[in-house]
Amino acid sequence: MLARxxxxxALSLIGVVSLIFAACSPKSGDYHVIExxxxxxxxxxxxxxxxxxxxxxxxxxxxDSEAKMSMSIFDDNSLLSRVNRGETDSLDIHLIANIxxxxxxxxLSNGRYDITVxxxxxxxxxxxSRDMAEVPNVDSLMEFVGYDLIDVVDGRLVREDIRTQxxxxxxxxxxTVDLMAEELELMGVESYMINIGGEIRCKGVNSxxxxxxxxxxxxYDNNFAMDSFExxxxxxxxxxxxxxxxRRFHLDSEGNKVAxxxxxxxxxxxVSGLLSATVVAGTCAEADAAATMxxxxxxxxxxxxxxxxxxxxxxxxxxxxxxxxxxxxxxCSEEYR
Length: 337
Known about the structure:
Layout: E1 2-4, E2 22-24, E3 31-38, E4 41-48, H1 53-71, H2 79-84, H3 93-108, H4 118-123, H5 138-142, E5 150-153, E6 156-159, H6 172-186, E7 191-196, E8 199-203, E9 212-217, E10 229-235, E11 238-244, E12 249-251, E13 257-259, E14 262-263, E15 268-269, E16 274-281, H7 284-297, H8 303-314, E17 317-324, E18 327-332
Antiparallel strand pairs: 1-9, 2-3, 3-4, 4-7, 5-6, 7-8, 8-11, 9-10, 11-16, 12-13, 14-15, 16-17, 17-18
C-alpha cells in the first residue's frame, strides 16, 4: 500500500522466509542499497554511511531473527506462540513494549483496535492456517476477545482464560523497522530509509540530498501491480504506514468480501467505505498500529474523528481514502491537500 516511488513494495504479514540479500554501493560516496527478504516480506534499506553493507546486512539478519523468535504467530517456536499456547507466561522486552503500546490504541479507538483479536483472525482465515472452512461462530469467540482481558504484571502475561490470545501482526512489523532504525543510528548512520513490506521509516535525506518521497497507492481490489498512485508525499525524519482492505481479503461461501481487518467489537470483517488509511508518526510501530486502528474504525466508526484526535494529541499526519459515488474521496492533513 505504501511504496518508495522508485521501488514498489507489496505488503505481507509476519512469517518465516530465508534471508537472501543483494547489496550495492554506488561509486558516488558511501551510499548503500540493500534488498532482501525478512519477516515474510520484502526488505529494503538505503543508507548513506561509512559503515559497510556487510555490517548492515548482518544487523538486518540479527534483528529479523530476534523479532521473529519473539513476536511471530507463524513460527511455532516463537515466544508469542508459546505464550498463546500457555507454555509460559514470561514476556520479553519486545512483547511487553508492543502490548503496552497496543493498549493506548485500544483506548483511543474504544476497543476497535485490539491485539487479542487472534481467535477471530484465526477463525476468519487470516491466522496461521489461512483457512476458513465456514463462517465462524463469532458469539462463541467474543468472550475471549478484549484488551481488558490481559495485563502485564512483573514481566508476565496475566489472563483469565488461555483462549484469550495475542496477534501482533498489526504492530510488530513497524516495531521491527524501529529496531533496525535504532541499530543504524547506533552505527552512526544519519540518513537512511528502511522499508519492510511497506512499513517505512526515514531519516535525513536520500541519495540526491532531497527529502524521502513515498507514494500512496490507489486502493482498488487486488492491486498487486502497484502501478497507480493517489499521492506522493515527502517524509522527514518520521515513519509512515498504510493499512487497507483492497489486497488482503477473500470471499466467503456466499460471495461476501471478508477483509483481513477484523473489528474486535463486533467480531466481523471491518468492510466499510474507508479503503485505505495512511499515518505518518514518530515511530513505525505507532504508524503501523494507528493505520490498522483507523481501518477498524471504518466509516461508521468515525475514523476521521480519531485521526484528527491523534493529529492534535501526537502531531501525527494522515491520508484517508474513502469510496464515494464519484470514485474516491480524500480526507487528509492540511500538509497533503
